[in-house]
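Example record

The entry below shows one chain as it appears in the dataset: sequence first, then structure tokens.
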Amino acid sequence: MSLKSKSLSSVRDLPAVSVLMEEEQVRINLNVGKSLRNKWKAAALKREKTMTELILEAMKTYSNE
């Protein structure tokens, strides 16, 4: 039996490195005052980010990552 190489059009695309390196995500729930939540939401909208992105940035800065 001889080995045949596949044509380039039939080879699967490899997943992006960022997908392979992605860490498992977990959910964190916390209670905050409505006014603080509104400030976070306004700050996120102003920066065209989600609240999650904004809070994660702050958490990374706080934990020196």
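Notes for this example: The longest helix spans residues 34-46. The mean pLDDT is 82.
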